[in-house]
Amino acid sequence: MLCRFGKTSWGTIRAVKTWISAFALAGLLCATMPAQASSTIETAGTGTAIALPLVAGGIALWKDDWTGAAQVTLSTALTLGTSLALKQFVREQRPDHSDFKSFPSNTSAIAFAPAQFLWQRYGWEYGLPAYAAATFVGWSRVDAKQHHWWDVMASAAISIGYNEIFTTRYRPPNGFTSNLSANPDGIFVSANYRW
User: Would residue 71 be called left, alpha or beta, if left means φ above 0 and alpha means ψ between -120 and 50 degrees?
Assistant: First the structure.
């Protein structure tokens, strides 16, 4: 999916439509979550963190990319597992002084792993909105005084490391593909063969 300045790429339009749907899903998840969080921002951040892996997996399945679905599952599981393991060994007090399990942020780990996966696998059109959402999740954790900023950055770094190891760039399948789309200027039909 290449986006050129001055021209609109159909892949970019498709990515924007996907992200509009994804943010609608995240809003729905946030609206249905119980009101146990200390603030609306914290609740929205948690809902977004839950939605990001689901959206990334959904995008992979929508593209019929089973390798990508396995990669996002693996990188997210390893990032979260590493974060959980580090919490057992690193004693850092939370900013609200509730306990000593601040480093690293599990919620941010859940958010940054699929964001990095989307960037590396499908490009910036998918990765940029995902990183914006993951950054919001990290900010919500710092704002709620559950984590320091370096706790969030550590989770992001862990996710980048695992995605660098396990995520490969998406290549559309070989063979014949076709596309039919319409806009106010007319109807567009394309047929491609890739070998």
Answer: alpha
Number of domains in the chain: 1
Q: What is the DSSP letter of 172?
A: P
- Which pTM does this prediction carry? 0.71
Domain that holds residue 168: 10-194
CA 27 to CA 190: how far, in whole Å? 35
Residue-level pLDDT at 190: 82
Which string of b and e fits 31-49 if b means at least 16 CB within 10 Å? eeeeeebeeeebbbbbbbb
Residue 2 inside a domain? The answer is: no
User: What SS3 state is found at 152?
Assistant: helix
- Nearest partner of 122 among 152, 163, 80, judged by Cα: 163
- Whether pLDDT at 99 is above 80: yes
| Structural domain includes residue 1 | no
Does any domain span residue 5? Answer: no
Q: For the segment 108-121, what is each residue's pLDDT rounded down to a tens digit?
A: 999 999 999 999 99
